Amino acid sequence: MANATHLLSLFILIQLNCVALSSHGHGHGNATASFCRPDQAASLVQLKQSFIFDYSTTTLPSWQTGTDCCLWEGIGCDDGGGRVTVLDLGGCGLYSYSCHAALFNLTSLRYLDLSMNDFGGSRIPASGFQRLSKLTHLNLSYSGFYGQVPIAIGKLKSLISLDLSSRKNIAPDETMHTYGIVDGYNFLVLREPSLETLVANLTNLRELYLDMVDISSSGEEWCSGLGEAVPHLQVLSMADCQLQGPIHSSLSSLRSLTVINLENNGDVSGVVPEFLADFRNLSVLRLSFNDLSGWFPERIFQLKNIRFLDVSNNRLSGDLPEFSNGTSLETLNLYNNDFSGMIKPGSFSNLLSLKELALDGRGVGAIFLMD
Ligand SMILES: *[C@@H]1O[C@H](CO)[C@@H](O)[C@H](O)[C@H]1NC(C)=O
Ligand SMILES: *[C@@H]1O[C@H](CO)[C@@H](O)[C@H](O)[C@H]1NC(C)=O
Ligand SMILES: *[C@@H]1O[C@H](CO)[C@@H](O)[C@H](O)[C@H]1NC(C)=O
Ligand SMILES: *[C@@H]1O[C@H](CO)[C@@H](O)[C@H](O)[C@H]1NC(C)=O
Ligand SMILES: *[C@@H]1O[C@H](CO)[C@@H](O)[C@H](O)[C@H]1NC(C)=O
Ligand SMILES: *[C@@H]1O[C@H](CO)[C@@H](O)[C@H](O)[C@H]1NC(C)=O
Protein backbone atom coordinates (compact mmCIF):
# COMPACT_ATOMS: atom_id res chain seq x y z
CA MET A 1 0.00 0.00 0.00
CA ALA A 2 2.68 2.46 1.05
CA ASN A 3 4.82 1.41 -1.88
CA ALA A 4 2.01 1.95 -4.32
CA THR A 5 1.65 5.43 -2.94
CA HIS A 6 5.30 6.17 -3.59
CA LEU A 7 5.21 4.76 -7.07
CA LEU A 8 2.33 6.96 -7.97
CA SER A 9 3.81 10.07 -6.43
CA LEU A 10 6.99 9.41 -8.34
CA PHE A 11 5.06 8.93 -11.51
CA ILE A 12 3.76 12.42 -11.03
CA LEU A 13 7.21 13.71 -10.25
CA ILE A 14 8.66 12.56 -13.55
CA GLN A 15 6.52 15.09 -15.29
CA LEU A 16 8.44 17.82 -13.54
CA ASN A 17 11.62 19.26 -14.86
CA CYS A 18 14.90 18.40 -13.29
CA VAL A 19 16.71 21.69 -13.15
CA ALA A 20 20.08 20.05 -12.76
CA LEU A 21 20.76 19.58 -16.42
CA SER A 22 24.34 20.69 -16.30
CA SER A 23 27.14 21.45 -13.95
CA HIS A 24 26.92 24.82 -12.29
CA GLY A 25 30.31 25.71 -13.61
CA HIS A 26 31.57 27.77 -10.73
CA GLY A 27 35.30 28.32 -10.90
CA HIS A 28 36.02 26.48 -14.08
CA GLY A 29 38.30 29.08 -15.55
CA ASN A 30 40.99 26.49 -14.99
CA ALA A 31 39.69 22.97 -14.66
CA THR A 32 43.01 21.75 -13.34
CA ALA A 33 43.01 24.25 -10.51
CA SER A 34 39.46 23.38 -9.39
CA PHE A 35 39.67 19.61 -9.78
CA CYS A 36 37.43 18.29 -7.08
CA ARG A 37 38.87 16.91 -3.89
CA PRO A 38 38.67 13.12 -3.54
CA ASP A 39 36.69 13.24 -0.29
CA GLN A 40 34.08 15.44 -1.99
CA ALA A 41 33.77 13.07 -4.94
CA ALA A 42 33.54 10.09 -2.55
CA SER A 43 30.68 11.67 -0.62
CA LEU A 44 28.82 12.39 -3.85
CA VAL A 45 29.32 8.85 -5.11
CA GLN A 46 27.94 7.51 -1.83
CA LEU A 47 24.97 9.80 -2.21
CA LYS A 48 24.41 8.61 -5.77
CA GLN A 49 24.44 5.01 -4.58
CA SER A 50 21.59 5.82 -2.19
CA PHE A 51 19.31 6.90 -5.04
CA ILE A 52 16.93 4.74 -7.01
CA PHE A 53 16.55 6.02 -10.54
CA ASP A 54 13.45 4.15 -11.70
CA TYR A 55 11.31 7.25 -12.04
CA SER A 56 13.89 10.00 -12.21
CA THR A 57 14.52 12.42 -15.03
CA THR A 58 18.25 11.75 -14.81
CA THR A 59 20.49 8.88 -13.76
CA LEU A 60 23.35 11.29 -13.02
CA PRO A 61 25.51 9.71 -15.76
CA SER A 62 28.29 12.25 -15.32
CA TRP A 63 28.80 11.26 -11.69
CA GLN A 64 31.67 8.84 -12.37
CA THR A 65 34.54 8.10 -10.05
CA GLY A 66 37.83 9.33 -11.41
CA THR A 67 36.37 12.33 -13.20
CA ASP A 68 36.26 15.89 -11.93
CA CYS A 69 33.17 16.11 -9.73
CA CYS A 70 33.15 19.89 -10.16
CA LEU A 71 31.93 19.22 -13.69
CA TRP A 72 29.19 16.80 -12.69
CA GLU A 73 25.53 17.50 -13.29
CA GLY A 74 24.04 19.68 -10.57
CA ILE A 75 27.40 20.38 -8.94
CA GLY A 76 29.33 23.58 -8.49
CA CYS A 77 32.68 24.11 -6.76
CA ASP A 78 34.49 26.99 -5.15
CA ASP A 79 37.25 28.74 -7.02
CA GLY A 80 40.38 26.71 -6.87
CA GLY A 81 39.73 24.69 -3.73
CA GLY A 82 37.91 21.80 -5.35
CA ARG A 83 35.21 21.83 -2.68
CA VAL A 84 31.57 21.35 -3.61
CA THR A 85 29.59 24.51 -2.92
CA VAL A 86 26.48 23.81 -5.00
CA LEU A 87 24.34 20.68 -5.01
CA ASP A 88 21.23 21.22 -7.08
CA LEU A 89 19.11 18.13 -7.60
CA GLY A 90 15.82 20.03 -7.54
CA GLY A 91 13.08 18.39 -9.57
CA CYS A 92 15.09 15.32 -10.55
CA GLY A 93 12.46 12.86 -9.32
CA LEU A 94 15.04 10.81 -7.47
CA TYR A 95 13.87 8.27 -4.93
CA SER A 96 15.71 7.33 -1.76
CA TYR A 97 14.67 5.51 1.39
CA SER A 98 16.29 8.22 3.47
CA CYS A 99 18.75 11.05 3.28
CA HIS A 100 22.26 9.53 3.20
CA ALA A 101 24.65 10.96 5.81
CA ALA A 102 27.32 11.43 3.12
CA LEU A 103 25.48 14.63 2.25
CA PHE A 104 26.66 16.17 5.50
CA ASN A 105 30.30 15.62 4.62
CA LEU A 106 29.94 18.27 1.92
CA THR A 107 30.66 20.93 4.50
CA SER A 108 31.47 23.69 2.00
CA LEU A 109 27.98 23.67 0.52
CA ARG A 110 26.39 27.07 0.11
CA TYR A 111 23.46 26.09 -2.07
CA LEU A 112 21.50 22.88 -1.49
CA ASP A 113 18.35 22.08 -3.44
CA LEU A 114 16.77 18.65 -2.97
CA SER A 115 13.26 19.82 -3.80
CA MET A 116 10.84 17.65 -5.75
CA ASN A 117 12.55 14.38 -5.09
CA ASP A 118 11.16 11.61 -2.91
CA PHE A 119 13.03 10.65 0.22
CA GLY A 120 10.60 7.84 0.78
CA GLY A 121 8.50 9.68 3.28
CA SER A 122 11.39 9.41 5.71
CA ARG A 123 11.99 11.50 8.78
CA ILE A 124 14.00 14.60 8.11
CA PRO A 125 17.47 13.92 9.62
CA ALA A 126 17.52 15.14 13.22
CA SER A 127 21.22 15.80 13.04
CA GLY A 128 23.62 16.63 10.24
CA PHE A 129 22.45 19.90 8.74
CA GLN A 130 24.40 21.86 11.35
CA ARG A 131 27.59 20.67 9.60
CA LEU A 132 26.59 22.60 6.48
CA SER A 133 27.32 25.86 8.26
CA LYS A 134 28.05 27.83 5.09
CA LEU A 135 24.63 27.23 3.55
CA THR A 136 22.93 30.33 2.24
CA HIS A 137 20.16 28.52 0.34
CA LEU A 138 18.36 25.41 1.53
CA ASN A 139 15.43 24.02 -0.42
CA LEU A 140 13.81 20.83 0.80
CA SER A 141 10.38 21.62 -0.51
CA TYR A 142 8.23 18.76 -1.68
CA SER A 143 10.88 16.15 -1.01
CA GLY A 144 8.77 13.78 1.06
CA PHE A 145 10.45 14.41 4.39
CA TYR A 146 8.26 14.42 7.46
CA GLY A 147 8.57 14.96 11.18
CA GLN A 148 10.01 17.62 13.42
CA VAL A 149 12.13 20.23 11.65
CA PRO A 150 15.50 19.79 13.37
CA ILE A 151 17.16 22.46 15.45
CA ALA A 152 20.22 21.76 13.27
CA ILE A 153 18.64 23.97 10.58
CA GLY A 154 18.31 26.79 13.11
CA LYS A 155 22.09 26.79 13.46
CA LEU A 156 22.68 27.71 9.82
CA LYS A 157 23.35 31.37 10.48
CA SER A 158 24.26 32.22 6.90
CA LEU A 159 20.89 31.16 5.52
CA ILE A 160 19.32 33.71 3.19
CA SER A 161 16.62 31.46 1.83
CA LEU A 162 14.87 28.55 3.53
CA ASP A 163 12.14 26.57 1.80
CA LEU A 164 10.57 23.67 3.69
CA SER A 165 7.17 23.99 2.09
CA SER A 166 5.05 21.55 0.27
CA ARG A 167 2.29 22.88 -1.81
CA LYS A 168 -1.13 21.42 -2.31
CA ASN A 169 -1.39 22.85 -5.79
CA ILE A 170 1.52 20.74 -6.90
CA ALA A 171 -1.10 18.04 -7.59
CA PRO A 172 -1.65 18.32 -11.32
CA ASP A 173 -5.25 17.18 -11.10
CA GLU A 174 -7.68 15.25 -8.97
CA THR A 175 -5.75 12.02 -9.45
CA MET A 176 -3.68 12.52 -6.34
CA HIS A 177 -6.79 13.08 -4.29
CA THR A 178 -8.47 10.03 -5.78
CA TYR A 179 -5.57 7.85 -4.72
CA GLY A 180 -5.33 9.49 -1.32
CA ILE A 181 -1.81 10.71 -1.79
CA VAL A 182 -2.49 14.14 -0.45
CA ASP A 183 -4.21 12.71 2.61
CA GLY A 184 -1.56 10.05 3.08
CA TYR A 185 1.24 12.54 2.86
CA ASN A 186 3.17 13.16 6.07
CA PHE A 187 4.05 16.67 6.95
CA LEU A 188 6.84 18.53 8.63
CA VAL A 189 6.14 19.88 12.09
CA LEU A 190 7.52 22.80 14.07
CA ARG A 191 6.86 22.03 17.70
CA GLU A 192 10.15 21.45 19.49
CA PRO A 193 11.94 23.56 18.35
CA SER A 194 9.15 26.02 17.73
CA LEU A 195 9.15 28.44 14.82
CA GLU A 196 10.45 31.13 17.16
CA THR A 197 13.39 28.99 18.27
CA LEU A 198 14.16 27.82 14.76
CA VAL A 199 14.57 31.33 13.34
CA ALA A 200 16.06 32.96 16.44
CA ASN A 201 19.59 33.03 15.00
CA LEU A 202 18.76 33.15 11.28
CA THR A 203 19.24 36.90 11.15
CA ASN A 204 20.23 36.99 7.47
CA LEU A 205 17.07 35.31 6.26
CA ARG A 206 15.34 37.01 3.32
CA GLU A 207 12.94 34.24 2.23
CA LEU A 208 11.04 31.86 4.50
CA TYR A 209 8.67 29.34 2.94
CA LEU A 210 6.90 27.03 5.39
CA ASP A 211 3.65 26.28 3.53
CA MET A 212 1.97 23.12 4.87
CA VAL A 213 4.36 22.79 7.81
CA ASP A 214 2.29 22.12 10.94
CA ILE A 215 2.93 25.10 13.25
CA SER A 216 -0.26 24.66 15.29
CA SER A 217 1.58 24.18 18.56
CA SER A 218 2.85 27.78 18.50
CA GLY A 219 -0.69 28.81 19.36
CA GLU A 220 -1.39 32.53 19.38
CA GLU A 221 2.33 33.32 19.56
CA TRP A 222 3.07 32.03 16.08
CA CYS A 223 4.66 35.26 14.86
CA SER A 224 5.61 37.06 18.04
CA GLY A 225 9.34 36.43 17.62
CA LEU A 226 9.70 37.03 13.89
CA GLY A 227 10.11 40.79 13.87
CA GLU A 228 13.15 40.71 16.07
CA ALA A 229 14.73 37.54 14.70
CA VAL A 230 14.56 38.08 10.94
CA PRO A 231 14.52 41.84 10.35
CA HIS A 232 15.44 41.64 6.67
CA LEU A 233 12.72 39.20 5.68
CA GLN A 234 11.26 39.84 2.24
CA VAL A 235 9.12 36.73 1.78
CA LEU A 236 7.00 35.19 4.53
CA SER A 237 4.98 32.28 3.24
CA MET A 238 3.04 30.25 5.77
CA ALA A 239 -0.08 29.01 4.02
CA ASP A 240 -1.85 25.93 5.42
CA CYS A 241 0.21 25.93 8.62
CA GLN A 242 -2.73 25.64 11.03
CA LEU A 243 -1.86 29.02 12.50
CA GLN A 244 -4.23 30.60 14.98
CA GLY A 245 -4.61 33.98 16.59
CA PRO A 246 -3.76 37.52 15.60
CA ILE A 247 -1.09 38.94 13.35
CA HIS A 248 1.32 40.12 16.04
CA SER A 249 2.62 43.69 16.18
CA SER A 250 6.12 42.20 16.10
CA LEU A 251 5.66 41.92 12.34
CA SER A 252 5.50 45.71 12.05
CA SER A 253 9.29 45.88 11.96
CA LEU A 254 9.48 43.68 8.86
CA ARG A 255 9.32 46.62 6.49
CA SER A 256 11.15 44.88 3.69
CA LEU A 257 8.39 42.35 3.17
CA THR A 258 7.31 42.02 -0.43
CA VAL A 259 5.29 38.81 -0.07
CA ILE A 260 3.02 37.81 2.81
CA ASN A 261 1.10 34.59 2.40
CA LEU A 262 -0.98 33.38 5.34
CA GLU A 263 -3.70 31.78 3.25
CA ASN A 264 -5.86 28.94 4.37
CA ASN A 265 -4.91 28.77 8.03
CA GLY A 266 -8.52 29.01 9.11
CA ASP A 267 -7.91 30.56 12.50
CA VAL A 268 -5.69 33.57 11.90
CA SER A 269 -7.94 36.13 13.58
CA GLY A 270 -8.21 39.71 14.73
CA VAL A 271 -7.79 42.69 12.46
CA VAL A 272 -5.64 43.21 9.39
CA PRO A 273 -3.09 45.50 11.00
CA GLU A 274 -2.77 49.06 9.74
CA PHE A 275 1.03 48.78 9.76
CA LEU A 276 0.93 46.60 6.63
CA ALA A 277 0.17 49.80 4.73
CA ASP A 278 3.64 51.04 5.69
CA PHE A 279 5.36 48.20 3.83
CA ARG A 280 6.21 50.20 0.72
CA ASN A 281 7.50 47.18 -1.20
CA LEU A 282 4.58 44.89 -0.48
CA SER A 283 3.42 43.34 -3.72
CA VAL A 284 1.61 40.16 -2.68
CA LEU A 285 -0.79 39.94 0.27
CA ARG A 286 -2.68 36.65 0.60
CA LEU A 287 -4.85 36.31 3.66
CA SER A 288 -7.81 34.31 2.33
CA PHE A 289 -9.63 31.59 4.25
CA ASN A 290 -8.99 32.85 7.75
CA ASP A 291 -11.03 34.43 10.51
CA LEU A 292 -9.92 38.04 10.11
CA SER A 293 -12.49 40.67 11.04
CA GLY A 294 -12.87 44.38 11.56
CA TRP A 295 -12.17 47.26 9.24
CA PHE A 296 -9.72 46.61 6.40
CA PRO A 297 -7.12 49.41 6.21
CA GLU A 298 -7.96 51.38 3.09
CA ARG A 299 -4.36 52.55 2.71
CA ILE A 300 -3.36 49.01 1.69
CA PHE A 301 -5.30 49.44 -1.55
CA GLN A 302 -3.22 52.50 -2.23
CA LEU A 303 0.17 50.81 -1.97
CA LYS A 304 2.03 51.56 -5.18
CA ASN A 305 3.58 48.12 -5.54
CA ILE A 306 0.66 45.92 -4.56
CA ARG A 307 -0.03 43.48 -7.40
CA PHE A 308 -1.93 40.64 -5.78
CA LEU A 309 -4.38 41.29 -2.97
CA ASP A 310 -6.59 38.44 -1.77
CA VAL A 311 -8.39 38.73 1.55
CA SER A 312 -11.39 36.67 0.45
CA ASN A 313 -13.32 34.41 2.81
CA ASN A 314 -12.84 36.29 6.06
CA ARG A 315 -15.21 38.55 7.99
CA LEU A 316 -13.71 41.86 6.97
CA SER A 317 -15.57 45.05 6.38
CA GLY A 318 -14.46 48.24 4.76
CA ASP A 319 -15.12 50.74 2.08
CA LEU A 320 -14.44 49.97 -1.50
CA PRO A 321 -11.57 52.26 -2.24
CA GLU A 322 -11.10 54.89 -4.80
CA PHE A 323 -8.17 53.71 -6.80
CA SER A 324 -5.70 56.32 -7.83
CA ASN A 325 -3.93 56.28 -11.14
CA GLY A 326 -0.74 54.27 -11.11
CA THR A 327 -1.65 51.27 -8.97
CA SER A 328 -0.10 47.95 -9.94
CA LEU A 329 -3.05 45.76 -8.93
CA GLU A 330 -3.51 42.72 -11.10
CA THR A 331 -5.70 40.65 -8.79
CA LEU A 332 -8.13 41.99 -6.24
CA ASN A 333 -10.21 39.46 -4.35
CA LEU A 334 -12.47 40.66 -1.55
CA TYR A 335 -15.02 37.89 -2.05
CA ASN A 336 -17.07 36.60 0.87
CA ASN A 337 -16.51 39.48 3.28
CA ASP A 338 -18.62 42.46 4.15
CA PHE A 339 -17.17 45.27 2.11
CA SER A 340 -19.61 47.97 1.16
CA GLY A 341 -19.95 51.32 -0.48
CA MET A 342 -20.35 52.61 -3.94
CA ILE A 343 -17.97 51.90 -6.72
CA LYS A 344 -17.18 55.35 -7.89
CA PRO A 345 -17.35 55.68 -11.66
CA GLY A 346 -13.88 56.05 -13.03
CA SER A 347 -12.21 54.63 -9.93
CA PHE A 348 -11.73 51.19 -11.44
CA SER A 349 -10.62 52.62 -14.74
CA ASN A 350 -7.42 53.57 -12.94
CA LEU A 351 -6.63 49.90 -12.45
CA LEU A 352 -4.80 49.57 -15.70
CA SER A 353 -3.16 46.26 -14.75
CA LEU A 354 -6.21 44.53 -13.36
CA LYS A 355 -6.79 41.01 -14.65
CA GLU A 356 -9.01 39.53 -12.00
CA LEU A 357 -11.58 41.03 -9.66
CA ALA A 358 -13.91 39.38 -7.20
CA LEU A 359 -16.31 41.26 -4.97
CA ASP A 360 -19.67 40.59 -3.44
CA GLY A 361 -22.11 41.76 -0.80
CA ARG A 362 -23.75 45.09 -1.45
CA GLY A 363 -21.25 45.82 -4.15
CA VAL A 364 -20.91 43.56 -7.11
CA GLY A 365 -21.68 39.86 -6.82
CA ALA A 366 -19.69 38.36 -9.60
CA ILE A 367 -16.22 37.61 -10.77
CA PHE A 368 -15.03 39.59 -13.71
CA LEU A 369 -12.13 38.62 -15.86
CA MET A 370 -10.78 41.65 -17.58
CA ASP A 371 -7.88 41.18 -19.91
C1 LIG B 1 45.80 26.06 -14.95
O1 LIG B 1 46.44 25.80 -13.71
C2 LIG B 1 47.67 25.12 -13.87
C3 LIG B 1 48.18 24.73 -12.48
O2 LIG B 1 47.94 25.75 -11.54
C4 LIG B 1 48.65 26.03 -14.64
O3 LIG B 1 49.89 25.38 -14.80
C5 LIG B 1 48.06 26.36 -15.99
O4 LIG B 1 48.89 27.27 -16.68
C6 LIG B 1 46.65 26.96 -15.83
N1 LIG B 1 46.04 27.09 -17.13
C7 LIG B 1 45.37 28.18 -17.51
C8 LIG B 1 44.78 28.16 -18.87
O5 LIG B 1 45.26 29.15 -16.79
C1 LIG C 1 32.42 11.61 6.39
O1 LIG C 1 33.78 11.99 6.57
C2 LIG C 1 34.43 11.30 7.61
C3 LIG C 1 35.83 11.84 7.72
O2 LIG C 1 35.84 13.24 7.72
C4 LIG C 1 34.47 9.83 7.30
O3 LIG C 1 35.04 9.13 8.39
C5 LIG C 1 33.05 9.34 7.09
O4 LIG C 1 33.10 8.00 6.65
C6 LIG C 1 32.34 10.15 6.05
N1 LIG C 1 30.99 9.74 6.04
C7 LIG C 1 30.32 9.51 4.95
C8 LIG C 1 28.92 9.03 5.11
O5 LIG C 1 30.82 9.69 3.85
C1 LIG D 1 12.37 25.46 -4.05
O1 LIG D 1 12.14 24.51 -5.06
C2 LIG D 1 10.84 24.57 -5.62
C3 LIG D 1 10.69 23.40 -6.57
O2 LIG D 1 11.81 23.18 -7.33
C4 LIG D 1 10.67 25.91 -6.31
O3 LIG D 1 9.39 26.00 -6.88
C5 LIG D 1 10.86 27.00 -5.27
O4 LIG D 1 10.79 28.27 -5.89
C6 LIG D 1 12.20 26.87 -4.58
N1 LIG D 1 12.26 27.80 -3.47
C7 LIG D 1 13.07 28.86 -3.45
C8 LIG D 1 13.02 29.70 -2.23
O5 LIG D 1 13.79 29.14 -4.37
C1 LIG E 1 21.21 30.98 19.09
O1 LIG E 1 22.30 31.63 19.67
C2 LIG E 1 22.29 31.64 21.07
C3 LIG E 1 23.45 32.50 21.53
O2 LIG E 1 24.60 32.18 20.83
C4 LIG E 1 22.38 30.21 21.59
O3 LIG E 1 22.31 30.18 22.99
C5 LIG E 1 21.20 29.41 21.00
O4 LIG E 1 21.32 28.06 21.37
C6 LIG E 1 21.18 29.52 19.50
N1 LIG E 1 20.00 28.87 18.97
C7 LIG E 1 20.08 27.93 18.05
C8 LIG E 1 18.76 27.39 17.55
O5 LIG E 1 21.11 27.51 17.61
C1 LIG F 1 12.26 48.43 -1.30
O1 LIG F 1 12.79 48.08 -2.58
C2 LIG F 1 13.81 48.96 -3.02
C3 LIG F 1 14.17 48.55 -4.44
O2 LIG F 1 14.37 47.17 -4.53
C4 LIG F 1 15.00 48.88 -2.08
O3 LIG F 1 16.02 49.74 -2.49
C5 LIG F 1 14.52 49.28 -0.69
O4 LIG F 1 15.57 49.14 0.23
C6 LIG F 1 13.34 48.43 -0.26
N1 LIG F 1 12.80 48.92 1.00
C7 LIG F 1 12.83 48.20 2.10
C8 LIG F 1 12.23 48.83 3.31
O5 LIG F 1 13.31 47.08 2.13
C1 LIG G 1 -3.45 57.27 -15.91
O1 LIG G 1 -2.08 57.32 -16.31
C2 LIG G 1 -1.87 56.91 -17.62
C3 LIG G 1 -0.36 56.93 -17.90
O2 LIG G 1 0.37 56.94 -16.73
C4 LIG G 1 -2.60 57.85 -18.60
O3 LIG G 1 -2.40 57.40 -19.91
C5 LIG G 1 -4.07 57.85 -18.27
O4 LIG G 1 -4.73 58.79 -19.07
C6 LIG G 1 -4.29 58.18 -16.79
N1 LIG G 1 -5.71 58.00 -16.50
C7 LIG G 1 -6.41 58.87 -15.79
C8 LIG G 1 -7.83 58.53 -15.57
O5 LIG G 1 -5.92 59.89 -15.33
Can you characterise this structure?
By secondary structure, this protein is of the alpha/beta class. It is built from 6 helices and 20 strands. It has a domain of 95 residues: Leucine-rich repeat, LRR (right-handed beta-alpha superhelix) (Alpha-Beta Horseshoe), CATH 3.80.10.10. The strands form 3 sheets. Strands 1-2-3-4-6-8-9-11-13-15-17-19-20 form a 13-stranded mixed β-sheet, with no helix packed on it. It has a 5-stranded parallel β-sheet with strand order 10-12-14-16-18, with no helix packed on it. Strands 5-7 form a two-stranded parallel sheet. The N terminus and C terminus are likely disordered. The protein binds 2-acetamido-2-deoxy-beta-D-glucopyranose (6 copies). One 2-acetamido-2-deoxy-beta-D-glucopyranose binds next to loops. It comes from Hordeum vulgare subsp. vulgare (Domesticated barley).
Keywords:
alpha/beta; Leucine-rich repeat, LRR (right-handed beta-alpha superhelix); 13-stranded mixed beta sheet; five-stranded parallel beta sheet; elongated; disordered N terminus; disordered C terminus; Leucine-rich repeat-containing N-terminal plant-type domain-containing protein
